[in-house]
Amino acid sequence: MGKNPALVGVVVMVLAIAGAAVAASDHAGVSINGVQALQKLIDGNQRYVDGKAVCVNQTRDRRAELANGQHPFAAILGCSDSRVPPEIVFDQGLGDLFVVRLAGNVADPVAVDSIDYAVKNLGSRLILVLGHDRCGAVTAAVNGHEGGGEVGPMLAELRPAVAASKGQPGDPVANAIRENVVLMVEKLRNSKPLHAMVRSGELKVVGGIYRLDTGKVEILPDQSATQ
Ligand SMILES: [Zn+2]
């Protein structure tokens, strides 16, 4: 009994189509890796700092291109502060950044869930936690720290940063802002939905601080790289 050539042909064709579909969705689902994504943010921030923003991807064509899908190359956890809109300070446009903004850029459970969606469903391979100078939320946490007692959910999220930075030399608010970014990066890296991808090197999580006076985002040293 020989093989039916027509049947073999159909099977080969089906396998070929299936293979092409997997490759296409892999490609579309992960636009660029974490290192490339970070470089894009750094480059865009430099354009913004220099007053040379190109306002890329803010056209009618881009809007049409995204109508049925998005693959943002980075997810940003930033503060709600009106002076630090990620799309502007990184000179990006529609569909480029998946942004979660909460006062004090805290990685509360909903923020973690939202970012997990961007990573797993939209293909983002970089998460940036973006703090900023003179953050009102962190200032409130620093000022209220000595008071103790019941606090709201935002201040509760910020308390560990205030405690960790207590006693450090320099400005207490600036220290707490930096410590908060470091702790939120750690929290995301170690979160249940994301830690396997961080460990495998598939997902990069970094912190940065936006300087209100210059517009520059200072990327904090990658503490996981030394481990
Ligand atoms: Zn803030």
Molecular structure report:
The chain has helices at 5-29, 34-49, 60-65, 86-89, 109-122, 136-144, 153-165, 172-189, 195-199, and strands at 74-78, 97-101, 126-132, 204-210, 217-219. It has nine helices and five strands; from the N terminus they run H-H-H-E-H-E-H-E-H-H-H-H-E-E. It is of the alpha/beta class and 227 residues long. The protein starts with a helix and ends in an 8-residue tail after the last strand. Strands 2-1-3-4-5 form a five-stranded mixed sheet, with helices on both faces. The longest helix is centred in the first third of the chain and has 25 residues, at 5-29. Strand 4 (204-210) and strand 5 (217-219) form a beta hairpin. Bound molecules: zinc ion (ZN). Zinc ion binds next to helix 6.
Quick description:
48% of the residues lie in helices and 12% in strands. With 227 residues, the chain is of the alpha/beta class.
